[in-house]
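Preliminary data (for renewal application), beta-D-galactopyranose complex.
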Amino acid sequence: MCATTWFKNKFLWRVIFCLTTLTTFAGKEFLPGQIWYDTDGRPIQAHGGGILTFDGTFYWYGEDRTPGLHAAVSCYSSTNLYDWKREGVALWRTNLPRVQSRPTFVERPKVIFNPHTKRFVMWMHLEQNGYHCARAGVAVSDTPTGPFTFLNSFRPVTNDFNFSNDANRQTQFGATFRDMNLFVDDDGRAYVFYAAEDNWTMYVVRLNADFTGPETPLVQNKTWARILVGAHREAPAPFKWNGKYFLITSACTGWAPNAADLAMATNILGPYQSLGNPCTGEKASLTYGAQSTFVLALPSAPGKFIFMADEWHPDNLPDSRYVWLPLMIKRDGTFSVSWRDRWDLSVFGSALR
Ligand code: GAL
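Predicted structure:
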């Protein structure tokens, strides 16, 4: 081989090696706030989402805001949390009901599995322009990837809390249902957490045996409860550790970021005590520009959690970004979050910080 060819080949191999390493490396990291691509190289569309862990696979569901697609909820799957394969549209907008003859859309969908019915159950905030619809929507599927069939929409708690006759018609239809999340406890009972009473007070409501509605009869402080009363919180992200229930929420400032709060309770129905903002460092008072959506408990790694949040881009919502950061357990048994430009799961190597 002549010297020039040798040099050219060596150079080529270096480029190939460098590119491969970079690609592999980049694919095995979380890059909060950057564009995240699926395994086909398309930007991931799963906003306000949550993750179902089922049979060794993670399924990420979220708002699919792909322009022109008329999708409501997307589904992606992964076995390592870094590489996400698009499974397609889990719920189509054409399957959504009209409420009082007006079309609806979906925010903050979450999915859990019911081992008795063997069905995957999706809950969502069903909404209309103006945000006065404020209902829960429920859809089911026999497979995790769907497509899900829309079942019903309603406001789970219809008690009258002396609501004034407001634009949300809470006296007539019950307390509003907006930002929400689902949580399955160790005993297999499921709960929906949601911003109620026009976002002033959060509700926790235990679900019925097939997870498609509230457990009835509704008995306050037995099957459901008002929590963070009058605190004006939304974007609930519940999780459990060491027998205690934790709940991260945001303040209510629309798409604009604000300070998060971590609350703790010994009973899932509360009372919840605020522990303050779990975020630390620069931009902690704005949750690093993002808003909570879910806390993922890493399976087979007790006490290891990922805080998932959305950096909303209200002028171009499909371009909103994902901010996932490790929730680190502190010596007092509570949690903190700090910003990282890039990180991987090895940060959980030593759990106590
Ligand atoms: C936020 C909420 C988002 C979306 C937005 C609309 O408060 O968390 O999910 O509803 O308001 O302005």
